Amino acid sequence: MSDQIIKTELEILSKKELHRTIKRLASQILEKVPDTVSLLLVGIPTRGVYLSKLLAIYLEELSGQPVENGCLDPTFHRDDLSRVGTRIAKVTSLPSNIDDREVVLVDDVIYTGRTVKAALEALHSWGRPKRVMLVAMVDRGHRELPIQPDFCGRVVPTSKDESIDLRLKEVDGDEGIFLCKKL
Fold first, then answer.
1. CA dist list (Å): 43 to 4, 6, 160, 171, 178
2. Which end of the chain has fewer CB atoms within 10 angstroms, the N or the C?
3. Residue 174 maps to a domain
């Protein structure tokens, strides 16, 4: 008998539905922060960075103004590295001053809340934003910390042996959201 792992997946959102959801999230962000000059989107690697770029494009279409975005890698602020493992950290790229900005952290999937906690700690080492909000494309539950997204694309309850894959063309060559389970 082989030790091969079989993985099944179910499409939650197609490419078209994914982009419609990102546009909806952009509209919701614009309702909360109508002054896009103060708005800063900050993506959490890997897919949060690309998701923030897509949000910036849709926000500019809606508002007529460009929206600044950056990247913040919270790897060295995590309290669970022994559990999740280490990886090569991405370069953090933020404007020189984030003080008094309306910051929206962008993550692909919120699960335990530990990535967002680490991102908040990392962000505050760069300055003091006016407000920090969170957008997550998928909330799969199982929170270990009291952290909830302000904007959420989909809530997909999962078991602990399931995972959610957000696929974006720039990273994966494919687009959509998939529920995956190892058999």
1. 34, 31, 25, 14, 21
2. N
3. no
- Does some domain include residue 9? no
Range of the structural domain that residue 149 is part of: 15-161
120 exposure class (CB count in 10 Å sphere: 0-12, 13-18, 19+): middle
- Report d(CA 108, CA 166) in Å as an integer: 7
Q: Please indicate, yes or no, if residue 3 is contained in any of the structural domains.
A: no
How far does CA 91 lie from the centroid of its chain? Answer: 16
User: In the block, which residue shows the tokens 């700690």?
Assistant: 121
Residue ranges of E strands in the chain: 7-13, 39-43, 68-71, 102-110, 131-139, 151-155, 162-167, 176-182
pTM beyond 0.85: the answer is yes
How many domains does the chain divide into?
Answer: 1
What pLDDT shows up at residue 183?
A: 73
Residue 50, domain CATH: 3.40.50.2020
116-175: pLDDT as tens digits:
999 999 999 999 999 999 999 999 999 999 999 999 999 999 998 999 999 999 999 999
